[in-house]
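As a warm-up, study this chain.
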Amino acid sequence: MTDRQALEDERDHLLASLEDLEREHDAGDLDDADYETLRDDYTARAAAVLRRLEEGEGPDGLDVPVEPVAATDSGGSRWRGAAVAAVVLLLAVGAGVVVARSAGQRGGGTLTGNDDTVRARLANCQPLAFSDPTAGVECYEELLADSPDNVEALTYQGWALVRAGDVAAGSERFDSVVAIDPTYPDVHVFRAVVAARAAEVARRRGDVDAARAAYQEAADELAAFSRNDPPEIARQVLRQELLELKVFLGLLDEGASQCWTATITARGEDLAFDQRLYDELAGCLDGVLAGRPDDVDALVSRGVAALGPDRPDPGAAGRYAARALAADPSSPDALLLSAAVALSEERLDDAEVLVARLGTGPWPTAAFLLGSPEELAEVVRAARRSTAGPAGDGPTTTAATGGVVTSAPGGPPIPNPGGG
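Now compare it with the structure written out below.
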């Protein structure tokens, strides 16, 4: 067995273990504390294996070259940083595998035959979509001959086409799925990947406006994914694959972007959203805000940095959030930061109002750092249920899916800048 084959086997084992872990937790066979410990261990190990696989081209990757990107007159230093490109460019290795597995459990659309037959046929095609995309396209074609509107078959045939190099045909399949069922979450992962790839192409050629537009398209797809009750395992691996980070960085204004890029680049392969990173980020952002005190992206980023995992300062974070909202009352990231701070300070009514203001509007790209609007709303509901219950029975573990942890036994959750 080659080293790569061993890594692929380890990756598949870890991703399968995560999926099994999720089922056991949902079934009540695993308590929250053990679930979180095991989940964090498996995801960290899976991320390490995925990074090693991504160092070269492989059958499960996007095969996108990682190369230095020169600064351009139009883009300036906002678009520099080969190290950041190396961290965030390869997106869908584990995400595609795990989303496919989750889809196979759910089925999708209708086909001739009973449900077990449908699931079996879909499951037979899924591995081919990753290991042999051309064969995957053909496999799904047989399914689609029976039911041309099966959203899962269309989605994963589209992904196989993208992996085989026919992005246009794959995108046509994705468009068909959205026309049939815009709430099907899986398709939005792959549309986000395609949009992010287009943004990278535009960035490399120095077309800042086109890159930003493509990143915004990716952000819209992430919103559609997150707002349609996607499988938790898909969300976990999506975070591990750093697509959300890439979109976040791609849509930042120049000052905040420079600080994030410089801080991440300095960490090299040891990227971790730890206290040291946030301290370094805060120092850079203070310099930006000294010259541009109303820079919304810098203010929000500084508020996030104030919530570092070792020394969270919700008061300071709230002040930066208030300044950001004063500069732009409609900023989704400022609203999200304000809601997260309100939660940490047990101001549930305020948090609920702020989350409601986010509604179905523009997606807060800082959601991977602070928790999505849906996740924070669930935390509010959990806190209210706890308040209504017996004294002392407050929440003590992670609520919903990620982005939040409790501040103390019986106390409210506070944001987790580690991103889940």
